[in-house]
Structure formats: C-alpha cells, structure tokens
Design a protein that fits this description.
12% strand, 371 residues, 8-stranded parallel beta sheet, binds zinc ion, 11 helices, binds N-[3-({4-[(3-aminopropyl)amino]butyl}amino)propyl]acetamide
C-alpha cells in the first residue's frame, strides 16, 4: 500500500505538493435556502441552512489545509448514471410548475405521499412532489436543482483529484445527498453526491467503497447500490427503530442479488460514546479492508456530535470533538484514495471545527504513513 501511495504522489501536479487536502466548494450553495421544512408535524425553520457551509468554509480557510477551489462542470451524464431521468426532470421543473398552479412560492413541499399500494404516477404539479419525495424535509425552490447539481459537481471534482493522484479531497457539498435514492429525494437531499462520485470512480476501479458516518442511515446510497457487488456500502448510524429515516437501516439489510453481502449496516442503540463509536468504526474498517476497493468515498456527516439539534431529543450520539481526529485517522489507516463528501451536521457553532478535526485526523495519520 505504501508503494501505491508514493507512486501516486509522483503523478501529482507540482503546485498541489504542499496541499494537505484540497477542498471543493462554491458560494452559490447559498442560493438554495429553504424558508422552512415540515418536521414532526410542524413547520419549522430549515435546519439545513447556508450558514452550515459558511462556518465549515471559514474553519477550513483558517486551518489552511490547502486550496479551496470551485467545482468543474460535468453536465448531466454522471447524474444520470445514478438517478432516473424522470426524477431529474421533476427536480428541474417542479418549482415553476408548482407556482404556476397557484401553490405557495415559498417552496415545494409535498403533503400527499405515494406509498406502497397507492403509487400510480400523477403529473399534477401539486401531486408530483409526493411521488418523488419521501418526506417534508426536502423543500424545492427556484434554484434547487442547479445548486444540488453544483454539490454533485463538487463531489465529482474531488473524485477527479483522486484520479489525478491526490490521496484525499474534501467536497463541501450543500445540499447533502445520502438520503436521495435513484428516483426519490428527502431528508434535505436531492442528488446523492457520494453515490454519484462513487459511480464515477467506479469507471476507474473494479471496486469502490462508501463509508457513511452521518448520524442517519444513508438510505439513498443503500438503495442505489443494493443489488451491486462492485460498490460496498457501509453505514454506521442511529437505531432506525427510534431514529430517522425509520424505515431502513437495520443490520439485516445486507444487499441483494449480485449485491448480496455488499451492504453493511451498523445501527447503534442508546447514546454511543467516542469509544462505542470507534468499536463500530473498527468493524466498518475491517469490512472495507477485506473488500479491497480502489477508492473510498466517505459520506461525512457531523450530526453524530453531542447535542445535534436534528438528532432525536435526548437520544443523539454523545461524541465529543475529540472523536473526530480518531475517526479521521482510522479512515486514513485504510490506506485508500479517499473522497470526503459533506452530509449532515446541524449544531452550527461547532460544525466547522468538527469538520476540521475529522480532516486533520486523516491528514496527520496519512503524513505518518508516508514517513
Ligand atoms: C443529511 C441529513 O442529515 N439529513 C437528516 C434529515 C433528518 N430529518 C428529520 C429528522 C427528524 C428528527 N426529529 C427529531 C427532532 C428533535 N429536535
Ligand atoms: Zn444526518
């Protein structure tokens, strides 16, 4: 593994040599700003806000890990490799059609959902959102599709950096992605940035792994790769019996068909501490190592932090900031080219520092491996 890393660094462009980790992001993310979401029976101010990315950006600038660059444009092709065309057209057109039909211009939020035995398609602008969204926490505004595409482009640009020989890159994706399935959005997610990047990297390696460390089960990523043996999906998250997204994320969901045993869910009950979490991460790491992927995509949610407002009241995880460097170091130990894609994390005050702590843990460990 050591040799692989050194060979890779020869391919680096000279000016990248001093960068410990390159970040990809664009200030345009702020154009996607939901006025509210529908959560637990109430209209509440949107938790997934531009302030999240702003505080992460500021913390990364101060940490000076390396350049902070804008995404390149990839067009729709890599999105279509993961998402249905009809779903992309929905995301792109629904806001205008919704407003033209006389519905509120604040945001598209469904109130009637297609579920189980009532799932006939209906293209009425007031109905379509209930077909393509699974909850009331993914409001669609005028610029949502364009900005979600930019988040995917950020992940794809980070993927390209790995292909150019970078050991790691960080995509500051906003909106996040891991709840978005092939034809379904929800939980603040529209396009599955991590899955799009994993699928893109898959063109350059026979096997790719996704490690999801967000507090919530990465249900969208699981669905997208559930019947695939070439992309391993491992998710550590809160017990679905008591936590969003509730209807998936159990340990017995292990993949199907060619994907049998290529999905690993590690649900944690109670309020796990740093130590509890590291035990779960050890299990996740062992599975990823034995899968021997060419690339690792980390769905990096920081809502595992103690007191996160979106985690269940009184039953979130109990991780302290000290957990994140340990998590980053354990991920670096896998010795893989690694793409970090931002997912959740809503305790805005500590969010920037927690992201920096995670990435610093990775960087320090990676530097030790090199020397
Ligand atoms: C990307 C991501 O982290 N999405 C998370 C979406 C979660 N949305 C709904 C969570 C419902 C939790 N209800 C608990 C309220 C405690 N104040
Ligand atoms: Zn989350």
């Amino acid at each position: 593994m050591q040799t692989t890393i050194n060979n890779r660094s020869h391919a680096r462009m000279l000016w990248y040599h001093t960068a410990l980790m390159i970040t990809i992001t664009t200030p345009d993310h702020a154009l996607h700003a939901a006025p509210h979401e529908f959560l637990d029976g109430q209209i509440v101010p949107a938790f997934e806000s531009p302030a999240r990315a702003e505080i992460i950006h500021a913390a990364l600038r101060a940490a000076a890990f390396g350049p902070i660059l804008p995404p390149r444009q990839f067009g729709e092709k890599p999105l279509l490799a993961v998402h249905d065309a009809s779903y992309l057209r929905f995301l792109e057109t629904i806001y205008q059609r919704w407003v033209a039909a006389g519905a509120t211009p604040a945001a598209v939020i469904p109130s009637t959902f297609a579920a189980r035995w009532m799932n006939r398609p209906c293209n009425d602008p007031l109905a379509e959102p209930g077909y393509y969204l699974f909850d009331g926490s993914a409001p669609i505004m005028a610029d949502t599709y364009r900005i979600a595409s930019q988040a995917a482009n950020a992940a794809l640009t980070a993927a390209d950096l790995l292909l150019q020989g970078e050991r790691a890159a960080y995509a500051l994706c906003r909106p996040p992605g891991h709840h978005a399935g092939s034809d379904l959005g929800g939980g603040y997610c529209y396009l599955n940035n991590a899955a799009i990047a994993a699928q893109y990297l898959r063109q350059h390696s026979e096997r790719v792994a996704v490690l999801d460390i967000d507090f919530h089960h990465g249900n969208g990523t699981q669905q997208i790769f559930y019947e695939r043996g070439d992309v391993l999906v491992v998710s550590i998250h809160a017990d679905p019996a008591r936590n969003y997204p509730y209807f998936s994320g159990y340990a017995d969901e292990s993949g199907q068909g060619s994907g049998t045993n290529a999905n690993l869910n590690i649900p944690l009950t109670g309020t796990p501490t740093n130590d509890d979490y590291m035990i779960a991460l050890e299990q996740a790491g062992a599975r990823i190592a034995s899968f021997a992927p060419g690339f690792l995509v980390v769905s990096a949610g920081l809502d595992t932090y103690s007191g996160d407002p979106v985690a269940e009241n009184g039953a979130g995880f109990a991780l302290t900031q000290a957990a994140y460097p340990l998590i980053g170091a354990r991920i670096a130990d896998l010795g893989l080219p690694t793409l970090f894609a931002q997912e959740g994390g809503y305790g805005v005050a500590a969010l920037g520092e927690n992201v920096v702590a995670l990435l610093r843990g990775f960087i320090v460990q990676q530097e030790q491996q090199r020397s």
